[in-house]
Amino acid sequence: MNRLFDAPCDVESLSALNLAFVGDTVFDLFVRERLLCQANRPVNVQHTLAARQVKAAAQSAAAKAVLPFLTEREAAVFRRGRNAHSRHKAKNATEGDYHYATGLEALFGDLYLRGETERLRALFEIILETAGEETK
User: Looking at the domain assignment, is residue 8 inside a domain?
Assistant: First the structure.
């Protein structure tokens, strides 16, 4: 995935929450594209299926699935995201799930901004393999 807006970006200087801000959308795009390519479902069905996969509990499970496969640098980015303090309170999720989800989002944001498309795809594939096929 090439960056869509290819402006210079100092990824190292971005906060974990800013990485998560972008990573949330990147993860959502992976999920939505996969769902669309699977079937031409009604939009409300697509939305329901996507929401199940991008909610904090599902992202937390996804994070736990990829943790053993992360490089040292990626694990450090994940931990920064997981440990970031946000004023936002988790809705419909445990605090732990919310923090793990933020870690995963920060990781996806970091990889996206670095242009590491193949790594994003590989991690998403691991998530799909370990999470099972909830969307069938």
Answer: no
CATH of the domain at 59: 1.10.1520.10
Range of the domain at 91: 15-131
Task: Determine whether 28 is an active site residue.
Answer: no
Cα–Cα nearest to 85, from 103, 109, 72, 71: 103
Distance of CA 118 to the CA centre of its chain: 15
Which of the residues 10, 24, 28, 110 is marked catalytic? 24
Is 135:49 a contact under the CB 8 Å cutoff?
Answer: yes
How high is the pLDDT of residue 78? 97
pLDDT in tens, 59-111: 999 999 999 999 999 999 999 999 998 777 667 888 889 999 999 999 999 99
